[in-house]
Amino acid sequence: MNLREAMTRYRTLVVEGPEGLSRTGLLGELGRNGFVIRHASGALPHVDPTQPFRELLAGPGRIAVDGGIIHELVYGPLRHGRSRVTWIQALDFAEAVAERDGALLHVVEPCTADPFLPVEPGRPAGGTRALGAVGAAGLDEAVDEEAADAGAAFDRAFRTLEQHAPVVRVHPMDPAGQVRAPGPARRRAQRAWHGTQLTVG
Q1: Does 170 reside within a domain?
Q2: How many domains does the chain have?
Q3: pLDDT at residue 194 in the model
Q4: Domain that holds residue 81
Q5: Which residue of 56, 96, 132, 137 shows the fewest CB atoms closer than 10 Å?
Q6: In this structure, is residue 132 part of a structural domain?
Q7: pTM (2 decimals)?
Q8: Angle, CA 95 vertex, CA 90 and CA 101 arms, to 5°
Q9: Helix crossing, 145-161 with 127-134: angle to 10°?
Q10: How far apart are CA 122 and CA 155, in angstroms?
């Protein structure tokens, strides 16, 4: 499924992805197609950090939420040793999205010569993970360890949440609504990735 199909099928979309992959273009495209864009404001509450995001789902009409729950699941442990969001809370939120005829949008780096093709589950979805696997082969500079770990953690998180809410993998878009193709260094890394084996712990 691609973004156009997701906009037709669902009336609630939550946009999430690794740092470095802009969500601005995607949110703009959703806004142009009748979705009300909602953002959580302020720091996450200590008692129930998912509450602001659940409140964003309230109300009628088509809603697109600029996410942060999966971001906390990924970067909390990487940077602070723990996540303020528990898996039970994240799964409950995913179920709330599904109950509102919704899906989670997993923003990934294009890994194909044709950036308009949908991303298939099970393939190297994010440029972060692919680049981390390649190492120095043809790269202008190495991808840092946190980025590689984050890419793999996002993949694991979405695979788990997919049991409770639909997940659609989409590419970043520029403000004009065009899908962003990977830059030259990324394309070299993606070509080098093929034929290598990735182990995600």
Answers
A1: yes
A2: 1
A3: 37
A4: 3-120+159-179
A5: 137
A6: no
A7: 0.73
A8: 135
A9: 130
A10: 9
